[in-house]
Amino acid sequence: MRIAAFQRLALFDAVEQAAEVLARDLAWAEAQGIDLALFPECYLQGHSYGKAIAERRALSLDDPHLNALVARFAAGKTTVIVGFFERRDDGVYNSALVAKSGRIIGVYAKAHPLESGCMPGRDFPVWKEGHWRFGINICGDLRYPYMARRLALKGAGLICNPINLMLRPHKAEKWHRPGISSLQICARHTGCWVMASDVVGSNDDGWFSYGSSAIVDPNGVVVAKAKPHSEDVLVFDLPDRQPGCGFTQKAAVIAT
């Protein structure tokens, strides 16, 4: 399976522009034979820790505008994961949609949101792409080992991590390297491949992101890492067939 992690300039309240970027990138991805493409956390509308902003930006899965955008940017055969603020009957969620062939085929909501006003997700779905199964953790979810463990026990061989490490300068400096380390710890803990997609650039408050996009193998080795402070795309060919997940095998032995 060929995977790609897109590190892209952060956009804010520019859904149409984000959709144009997604359409361009996914057309390129299909031409390159990419099976699964990952984009950053809340990429579609722009990330924020503010409750009022998240509520204003949120879109529901049955919103005609959202579905028209998805039909436009995810029209091809490449499966895509895109972060967005999602509106549900009970509140707003920091979510990632999974789309293919012009339609949304699933969604994951961040279980441990740091964003004010966002509800915690309760479900841990796993999807299949070819001979591989993949799940999603969003950004800080990786701080909680049980999150990735649930996905591994469900048969996931790849964990996709949309992130948005746009922070105050001193925090951006503090979390840049630990952000990569958390991917390595997750990989070693689960026996899964892990890929992360981050934003770069800055916002009106002077926050900025180095860009911490990376692909890590099950032994914790970083096999691809994006250039800091710039847009980039990481492409990697996973084995044709998903190997047995080391964590799942270990858990099965303990269970018996």
The main pleated sheet reads as:
8 strands, mixed
C-alpha termini separation = 32 Å
- Return the string of H and E elements: EHEHHEEEEEHEHEEEEEEH
- The number of helices is 6
Strand content: 25-35%
Q: Assign an overall shape.
A: globular
The radius of gyration is: 17 Å
Number of strands: 14
User: Low-confidence spans: pLDDT under 50, at least 5 residues?
Assistant: 248-256
Structural class: alpha/beta
The amount of helix comes to 25-40%
**Overall average pLDDT:** 92
Can you offer a commentary on this structure?
With 256 residues, the protein is an alpha/beta fold. Helices cover 29% and strands 30% of the residues. It contains six helices and 14 strands. Strands 1, 2, 3, 4, 5, 10, 11 and 14 form an eight-stranded mixed sheet that branches. It has a six-stranded mixed sheet with strand order 6-7-8-9-12-13, with helices on one face. Helix 1 packs parallel to helix 3 (64-73). The protein is globular. It starts with a strand and ends with a helix.
Features:
256 residues; alpha/beta; eight-stranded mixed beta sheet; six-stranded mixed beta sheet; globular
